[in-house]
Amino acid sequence: MNPDHFTTLDLDSHSNEPTHQEERPDKPEEACGVFGIYAPSEDVAKLTYFGLFALQHRGQESAGIATFEGEKVHLHKDMGLVSQVFNETILSQLPGTIGIGHNRYSTTGSSRRVNAQPAVVETRLGKLALAHNGNLVNTVQLREELVNDNINLVTTTDSEMIAYAIAQQVNAGADWQDAAIQAFHRCKGAYSLVIGTPVGIMGVRDPNGIRPLVIGTLGENPVRYVLASETCGLDIIGADYLRDVEPGEMVWITEAGMASYHWIEQPERKLCVFEMIYFARPDSLMHNETLYSYRMRLGRRLAEESPVDADIVFGVPDSGIPAAIGYSQASGITYAEGLIKNRYVGRTFIQPTQAMREQGIRMKLNPLKDVLMGKKVIIIDDSIVRGTTSRKLVKALRDAGAVEVHMRISSPPVTHPCFYGIDTDSQDQLIAARMSVAEIAEQLEVDSLAYLSWEGMLEETREDTDNFCSACFTGNYPVAIPENVKRSKLVLEKVTV
Ligand code: SF4
């Protein structure tokens, strides 16, 4: 095997690749990555492929690309990583001037091939292909309305419902833009969408802009437009970041250029703060800086808020590393690597032995004995969800000779589930919803445990602190959650909506 192949495969900066031998990763999981390009005369399938490749961390269950060659749509989607789903031959069979791509992690609808995206739907003006990142909270109502209108839904995804809601308006006589806007008014929750049509592509964010979506440009004369969940999806194909799609905005990119529609009167910014803490890649740009810088500041703040005497500090690779560097800078405690990540592990389809299972994390992370032996250590992670991995990690550090293990978390306790496209389990599985910080410390068998304050997390964004969703830390959901949806994940009496 070509080693470069594997090196580039590990673009994912996270420590949460799901593997078949684990029951479930002990991290919130991202919903999806979306990508769109309008570029006549370019190889749009290949550019979309690379865009998805850079966005692989946002979803690893399935991948799909739809291209438009005039009225004709070419579609290929399947279960697996981008590099497993596509090859040169498949990409060469996806000609066209428009490309729409999607990486999926299933938050609604089971993990089946039929649920892979883009969703392609027929209309009176030709086909549309839709890629969705986020989760609607009014799917039951929307499904009922569509079924009552005799729409035959093929999949179990909310994304297909949005596509059909648009198609319905088109078939009733509206043009693409009006049809889409009318459909968006029926959708509640989180949605960043990229939609392809025979004449152009749309990029849309919900009225709160919960999930990110950026616009890039490729070349100059003529300018080609690109849409991606994160700027890392632009960088990889050499596109320049232009700006974000605004909350409640739809951009419509055609031969005539880019037009913008602010389709809601009072959009209210509520970007998912977890995107900044953990989900998005550290080299992606948000609020005019890379997330690496924000995550380093979280570590600095954590050192100020929760100092502790120790010999070394290190992060849980890879997502805890920027905060550990920040903690080291602010505290003066030496930064060292205490854990090495197996960068080549990816997904494994071979079941480990029982003994390996008990060792737990060693498949991915291996403690460095020489660094840890006889040391008082601070380990920094970006979050704790259920606490199962953290407990194994602490044991592994002690087994490797650490004499004291202090854990610091660069976000507040996760006490509530997410309904906007992030899989954070139901509330009763969240360790911080059931236990106090002292009880969690005891459970994890650490010498001390401290989380970053909620204020610290938001103030370090250097933005208006009202501009973020932080519901999984507070239970204050910016978009009301219907009772039937709440019941699926919440221990209701604990929630303030
Ligand atoms: S609830 Fe948490 S994970 Fe979900 S959108 Fe809000 S901040 Fe993000």
TrEMBL record:
Mg(2+) binds at S319, D381, D382. Its EC number is 2.4.2.14. CDD domains: GPATase_N (cd00715), PRTases_typeI (cd06223). The keyword 4Fe-4S applies. Its cofactor is Mg(2+); [4Fe-4S] cluster. GO terms for molecular function: 4 iron, 4 sulfur cluster binding; amidophosphoribosyltransferase activity; magnesium ion binding. PROSITE patterns: GATASE_TYPE_2. It catalyses: 5-phospho-beta-D-ribosylamine + L-glutamate + diphosphate = 5-phospho-alpha-D-ribose 1-diphosphate + L-glutamine + H2O. [4Fe-4S] cluster binds at C272, C418, C469, C472. One of its GO terms (biological process) is purine nucleobase biosynthetic process. Residues 1-30 are annotated as: Disordered. Residues 11-30 have a biased composition (Basic and acidic residues). HAMAP family: PurF (MF_01931). PANTHER family: AMIDOPHOSPHORIBOSYLTRANSFERASE. Catalyzes the formation of phosphoribosylamine from phosphoribosylpyrophosphate (PRPP) and glutamine. This is Amidophosphoribosyltransferase. It comes from Brunnivagina elsteri CCALA 953. The gene is purF.
